[in-house]
Amino acid sequence: MSAEANAVEGLKAVLGNIARAQSEAGRPKDAVELVAVTKTFDAQAIRPVIDAGHRTFGENRVQEAQSKWPGLKADFSDIVLHLIGPLQSNKTKEAVALFDVIQSIDREKIAKEIAREIEKQGRAPRLYVQVNTGLEAQKAGIEPGEAVAFVERCRIEHRLQIEGLMCIPPFDENPGPHFALLEKLAGEAGVEHLSMGMSGDYETAIAFGATKVRVGSAIFGHRPKA
Prior knowledge:
This protein is of the alpha/beta class and about 230 residues long. It contains nine helices and eight strands. Strands 7-6-5-4-3-2-1-8 form an eight-stranded parallel beta sheet. Helix 4 (about 90-100) packs across helix 5 (about 110-120).
């Protein structure tokens, strides 16, 4: 079976697992949306998944996304593209222009730059704040204790419409407590969406209230070197 066919089968399997996890958690049928993560995969690898009907995708890097998504979005106008990796301030202009959702607002400077670009471009991506639930020094994200106040500052000072929170738990820890923490913070911050769960733990995330799961390797297989 070709890599493209494998990706379509992977997509079907993941969607089936999501449906089952939703049911087991007692959640509505369409409570969770799959963000298919395509970092390091080219347009040729992605197209079969689009042809199979999927429309929501995620990329980690602005520059890589610029190399493949403008053409794909021109061909499929209903694609929704999420930025799920760290955003550098010098890439904010390009990110606001290309992405429909930015999940990785993690500091005051980025919030300010996004607000400026939204005003300049007249284009407003949906926005999430990334929370560093594991307090990992090497990982992006606002500290949990500061997250609710930061969301409020984004709304009041920068006039940003924050619709959700995102996290990436430490790879060597039980993700459940991290998902539970993000769910708690979302309630306190008054946001609707929770982006949490990847290929190895998305079913657990669904049990803790995820509304977006970010799955790549379970669909596309092992990643080529970036």
